[in-house]
Amino acid sequence: MTVTVGIDRLGFYTPQLYLDMTALALARGEDPAKYHVGIGQDKQAVIPPTQDVVTMAANAATQILTPADLADVKMVLFGTESGIDNSKATAVYLAHLLGLAPDTRAVELKQACYGATAGLQLAADYVRARPAAKVLVIGADIARYGLRTAGEVTQGGGAVAMLVTADPQIFALDPISTYHTADVMDFWRPLDRTEALVDGKYSTNVYLDFFKETWTAYQHQTGRTIADFAAMVFHLPFTKMGRKGLRQVLPEATAAHQQELTAAFEASQLDNRNVGNLYTGSLYLSLLSLLRHGALRAGDRLGCFSYGSGAEGEFYSGTVQPDYRRGFDDAALTAMLTNRRAVSVAEYESIFQQQLPNDGRDVQLPVGTDTAPFYLAGRQHQQRQYRRR
User: In the annotation, is 81 catalytic?
Assistant: First the structure.
């Protein structure tokens, strides 16, 4: 018997602060249209030192996990390129914060922005073999390029949490996906750096090439064409990137279908425009945005393109389920994004410099202004001090 597997619930967390891109553009002597139109970003999440990928993941996961789920989840797959330790997995810290049972498998996955997709596919295979299983998959990152750099406008951060089960409420995965890997130096972060190195134009070209490669391979393997899709969902380090990807395949569609695909893309990029780059979580925030803002129907097939610099790409698909809106809390997500506080450019620059230093010294962080359920209180004896309110 074939087991239907996919995303049963989706949660998302980003901190309570953001930077308006008009303010950043003016401070950097740029035309705001360069950021709003040329890059496709309106707001950028600002990550305070009291939040890291572990706390953001916990804040996202608690949105979707019931007490019964906490008892049933036996695997945590944590995709991130913002790991906090060169040995111990972020997933282990997360499993402890959530109170998961000791007989839980917890692993961190890294391949730039592709890590969460690797986790999703591994989780799906696991559940296909064990239909009663539940797997928690995380995509959490803090995108840092540095102040006054070319990549500054594509910073951001947050966490997406996905519960993968049989008979999912939201999105049932198709069994076939296509992937492509090549050793490419378009983006990387050496061990001695907290900010990434990137060749932006080259990375965009590689992204588009990998999309074309995996989309073509997918069509050959499945016999499907663009006519079979209600929407294409993209990894969005900045929203203009996905728009370029969509334009590559729009000529394959009829005029009427082109309008539908374009409208779906507009819905899929709304939340990303107001959060910024999540690295591993960007594709899944875009999927969530489409589910929240798009005109979807049960049975609609969505194509998803995941890309991680360095480089690895994957194209996969799935179908929207009848009760998909029950799998996320739309009102709470809207309130979280609406109630954030704008910071000035000067405040943003100060917060950017306040991340935990790499010298290992004890640090006590100013936790009073952080209202999230989980937060980072500081570091003692080389150990991060996590707290729950």
Answer: yes
